Every structure is written in structure tokens, then in C-alpha cells.
Amino acid sequence: MQSRLSLSQELLNSAKERLLGQDPPAEGVVLARNISLESYQKFCEAEKNLPVKIRLVNGEIIAYELPLGPHGTAAFHVGALMNKWCNQITGTAEEDIKVAPNSYFTADMTFRPRRLPTPPANQACNSLGWPYPTMVLEVGYSESIRSLHRWAPFYMSQRTMIMIYLAIKIYRSNTMVAMLYQRTSRTPNRPTIVISFGTRPIHNRVVNFLLNAGVPDTNIIGVGRHGAPPCNTSNMALYQLHIPAAEILHRTPSILPSVNFDLDLWEIQDRVLNP
Questions:
Q1: At which of 19, 37, 66 does a domain end?
Q2: Which of 10, 32, 89, 127 is most buried, judged by most C-beta within 10 A?
Q3: Would the pTM of this model clear 0.90, i.e. be above it?
Q4: Are 98 and 164 within one domain?
């Protein structure tokens, strides 16, 4: 029988300092290995208000993010814009999701149509018995873009019913990048579109990472790319991230809006820079 999981305050504070550093580890800080899903779930239920955000990834507990203002502001405002578009969607902050047999994530925000049928217990996304969301949002501030990209195969796995994974990376330099992953794509683990929307251009090393991940050059657009204009006001066509209504409201065609969800990325930039 596995002993009760414990993470010392010293270990957690050390991970926090590393994530706050000038060069934080690209894939987070490993805090423990060979941890069962049951032990991790019990730990999460007992331990609240940790100084770092953690997740279980193939039996490893990884500290990957800090609960700082820009991170929470961006996640909340995406949820607010989603609700403004369609009030028949339930947005949930910090929802636990089982994404693989020994992997358990706490998503920044999830979205699902209201009144989805309750699934069989072995097909629920967590211990509450809820159905899987149709869309997941992760925001990285301390977390690297490499780490955000790493989660796509988990969210798009055959176990889940997630149709859309949206990852937003906010850099301390005020560069901002949105990556949209879609289950309907032939390559769901690769962004279908990447939009740079901050006040500073996307860095060449980030572009090279995305190109090496298989994203076509023409699909990396926005500030710093192909002579794009600055993202400096609302309703600019280039900075509308188009998300199909049929994917957000998958399994509930009766409440399908007549228009898709266009996420105005300038709205996110403005909220982060001018809270």
C-alpha cells in the first residue's frame, strides 16, 4: 500500500523560486515520481492554496505555473467573453480532469454546454462525475510555450471528449501568443493557428519552436509576422481568433448559435496590461 503523499514546504518554495527565475525550466519542476492517481487525488483534496500550480503527468507531479495576476486575469476574461457570446455554456475555473490512466490536470478554465447527459462513472472527467468539457483553456505566464504545447496530446487523447484546447502564453516582455488546437484537425496535437497579439513581436526562437513542431509558417501570424499591423484596438480582423460554435457546443446542436465565437485577442491583451 502506498504511503500518504506529502510535499514539503521547502520543496514547494524551491519550485516557486525556480519558476520565478529569469530562466525557468521549460517543462516545469518535477516534485515527485511514481505517484498513483489515487494518491494524487487525495493529496489535492487535502492540500489547498499551494504556492505553485501542479499536475500529475504519467505518474510525475510537476510544478508548472504560479497563480499570478496576468495568468488569472487572462483566463477569467476569456470566460467572460465566452459567456457574453452564449449564456448556455458553463465555464468552470480550476477544474480537475483525468486525461490519461495516471495523468490528472487542473485546467485554468473549462467550457461545456449546459445540461449534458451524465456519463457512466468510468467515462467521467473527474470524481464529481461530470462529462468532459468541450473546450479547455490554459494560460502560461511562468509556464513556457513548450510546456503548454506538451499538454495537447493529453487533452486531445481518445479518453476525453474535448474538442478544443486553447493555450495562451503571456511573456514578461508583453509578447503574447495564442495557440488553437482542434480535434477535428488531421493533426490535433498541432495548433491549427498561432496568433501573436502582444505589444512586442513574437521572438524568433518561439517561431522556430513552432516550425519544428510542424506548424506551417503561414499559420503563425500577428505581431512581428509577415508585416502584420500592431494589435492596438478592438475588432481588428487579424486578431479575431475564430472558434467554431459546433465544436464548443458539440453534442448539443439544439442550442447552436448562428455565429461562431470570435475571441478578440486585443481584449485579452488590454485586460492583462490594464487591469
A1: 66
A2: 89
A3: yes
A4: yes
